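To close the chapter, one final illustration. This time we ask the reader to focus less on the individual chains and more on the assembly as a whole: which components sit near each other, and how the overall shape emerges from the parts.
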Amino acid sequence: MTGSSVPTPGTPRTSHPVRDFPPETLCPSCGKFVGAYTRCPYCGCEHKHRMSIRFFRSFALAVSITGLFLIWIAARGVKAPLVKVKDIGPMNSFAYVRIEGENTRTSAYPDGGVGFVLDDGTGTIRVQAYADTGRALAAMGRVPGPGERVSAEGTIQFTGERARLLVNVPEKVVVTRDGTARPGAAPVEIAEIDAGQKGKEVVIMGKVTGLSNIGKGTKMELTDPTGTIDVVLWDSVREAAAPGLAPAAGKLLKVRGHVGEYRGRLQVVPRASGRVEETSVR
Amino acid sequence: MNIWLVVLYTLLGTAVSSLVSLMPALHIYNVAGIIIILTMGTGTSALIPMEYVPIFMMAMVVGWAILNTIPALFLGAPDESAIFVVLPGQKYMMQGRGYEAAALTGLGALAGIVAMAVATPVFFKALPKLRQLTRPHNFWIMGLIISYMLLSEWPKGSGRQKTGWGRFIDGWKNLAAGLLTFLLSGILGFIVLTKPLVPIRYAFQNIMPVFVGLFAIPWVIGNIFSRTEIPPQYVCRSADLPTGIWSRGGFAGFLGGMIAAFLPVVTGGIGGFIAGHVTAQRDDRLFIVSQGASKSVYYIGGFLMAFIPGLSRTRGGMAWMLRPFYQPHTYDDYWRIMGVIMLSGGVSFFLLLAYSRLMIRIINRVNYRALSVLMFFLLLAVTYAIGGPWGLALATVATAIGLIPVYFHSRRMNCMGVLLLPITLNMGGLGPSIARLLRLV
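The assembled structure is written out below.
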């Protein structure tokens, strides 16, 4: 029994009989006429203690929209935490963090992507920017050179035992170019250079006592009466920092570059703004 | 590697997943996340030797893919990939044929596993090339899938409203609810993936509170307030399934599952839905078999991608969770894991039949409302343990979004906007611009 009736052919239909029954006599689940029953004989649902679907609808709409708005406001205010490389483990995969350290190596890829390795004193991590972000970094002058201090925000990704920081937003790579030595600054003795000067620019003078090619640059061993240090001259800056220089063992060089560290050894790395020149003055 | 230990951890993983599968709304990935935190929190596997962890995890995935049908059918609590099983499945339930529906789904899952084993040469030869070929085009492929998913939910409504506008609103209400669900879940996903709010110590689970809210809690709430009684069920000795329907359903499901397993972010529900349209399914039996196959190929095949040498593909929650700890490289790894899949699949199928019989016996004796309340608090506890207060806040908002399709009768699949939208935008290089627009960076 549904409470509906078949209209006589030819008779205009003026009302629907089901709709004429009081709502409390219709099953709230299947809509059939149940009269005074508290359990629908057709679908078996109970009529008492029912939770209003309208309530859940309103709840769902109100909480989802308001809640999402509040989550957005909160997320805007959240700062990426500064973490140390040694503290990063597989559980931190997909964390959005900030890492500060010194760039020890920069790589550029044919598709425009950029990668560099940050050393924060506790370990090293590869920072990577895919093609679009890499091109944007280059356009904004934010591709760090070796030895420069960098703050990078991104997502940690772990593959096997290797972690990397994936940068998606170019503005979140900040290269700090402070600690620059004055062009006319007096040279310091090599023995005076220590780990505390990492990231700072120094001027040194000494004799080339060793020379080797290292892929995209030249490594020179520079010796003065107080000690020896490696000077790394990248091909990418050679034109700007050492125009016309032909390094050879025995030559006396004056080098203005930033102090860096590679595999536990301190080194001086001239940037494009640095200088490597032959000198005869001791 | 000791063969007996391989068998032991396969059976152990299947047993664990069989218990998890009986709990409505508890997802195997959540449980796997907890197991990873407990066993490998220190970086070394404490409970299970590291080399056996992938075997244990794969067995869990296989068991889950097959046995998850039980709560989906008998308790009405499907996960996202099983949503489409429920519609014809519930018809079977109301006819007292729930056991048969479970068996059909299990047979579909077996068809999917057999198809994956048979397709191994294709996996080795074609998938790495296919990946290279599709990689630059993923953005628009994903856009097409999203468009198809949204556009194929055409206006509904009873057409009983008195005015034209009334009928228009009635018809488009569900569609608007679906679009709203997709948009809201997409924005939530974008926020969570751009600025994770979960503590960084468990960051690898940062999407978990959102998934719990979108998919698990709305169903638990539904179970708590539902008063439906299950009619008596008949345990049949044979299934109404000709070989032709089984193979057609298995093929369609394999196709759908592979679409989901191969393409980024696409889930078994979406893959099965597309494959269903592609193969023009009309028969309920074919539909149930194909969905069983699609679900198993999506879950198992997605994880299996990580073991295919030369493919370098990470698909599915389990592969992402395991990737930081383990990466397979050799053909031996692949064949071993394929053996694990076959063994676990066979055992799970018999468990499916046994558990279905058990469920039919106890279904009207166990207080599932009380169990659902228990599950509700368990989900909250797990979410708090992993995500802290922010995890609970995210789960609350996600729950509200997940309730929209339930109470406005649109597709729950739209909740997958949580991953589809942000990842597609990022693939298209639009992620940073949207992040700036939302002032998240």
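DSSP finds 18 helices and no strands in chain B. Residues 368-408 of chain B form the longest helix (41 residues). With these observations in hand, you are ready for the problems at the end of the chapter.
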